[in-house]
Amino acid sequence: MAVGQNQKNRKNDPMVTKTGKTRLGPLNTAQLTKLMEASTKPKEKGKILRAMNKLTIVAV
Question: Residue 25's closest CA among 35, 34, 33, 15?
Answer without folding.
Answer: 15
